[in-house]
Predict the structure.
Amino acid sequence: MSDPVEDATGDGDDGGGRATDAVAESDAGGRPSEGTEQDDPLERAAGDTGPALAADTDADRREYDPDADHAFPDERLNEMLDRIRSDDEITTYLAAQNVNPVDRKGYNDHGAKHVEIVRDRALRLYDLLKSGGVEFNGARQQGLDEADEPVIIALAATLHDIGHVVHRHDHPYYSIPLAADLLDNLLPSYYGVPDQVRVKAEVLHAILCHHTEEEPLTREAGVVRIADGLDMERGRSRIPYEEGGRGINTVSSQAIERVSLREGDRTPVQIVIRMNNAAGVYQVDSLLKAKLEGSLLEEQIQTVAINTRRDGGEDGPIVDRIEL
């Protein structure tokens, strides 16, 4: 079966690896270390972007903190995350799933670092939406608890790409049986049989809808779909760029400096994307837009992309700011 959104979403068609950010120290995955001081390009461009987009040091991606205050019950999630991170089979899958897309196809990173970023951003997005009063329907319609909503999101974000161990092409469909086997081993430690089946169903639904023509039927699945599209910074295209790749996905990803999630003025969530070149518009207007459409969350999220450099000569930048 062909992937109907393979080209539309650009989920790694010509990227690879993680890049060292020149303005900050990097972790082993090539992304700026958590808590590292950085010069905020939005702050530099305050005259163009306005006070609503002034620097917000609390808005950028950071690791999920189990000890922080959240807008949702987090005890069940925290227990599950501890298990996920210590499970040998899951961690092995996260390493093995990177071989086909990166080593054999020359695409971008779909391994443990990508999963970590997607999961962190999914939980951050979920937290902001809950703070904004958005109701989620997946767990509720299955008769599950509110505490199961973030569990479903975290599990789906963790397992969404394991189908890459079979093949890059149609990988969401291969992810379903592999994730089902892992869930059958994982969930009995936390749920009775009826709830095992219902949690499993919701996780598999979110995995399937992250990168296929099947649109999410739950907001939990919508969160995972959008979060997958938010791992777009230039680190994902380091390997093909250094090897001479100049396709639109590589060039546009190189233009993305940082992605931030914050509370919005008009919506529960505002996504701010800092780019240093107008080529980054492709990541926003084509790739992320495809993830947002049909997510059940379009009305709750405002996306703002800022070009922080003057790349248009004397007439100014070709693109200064776009909004979705």
In short: The two ends are 31 Å apart (CA to CA). The chain has two domains: 13-19+38-60+234-324, 70-231.
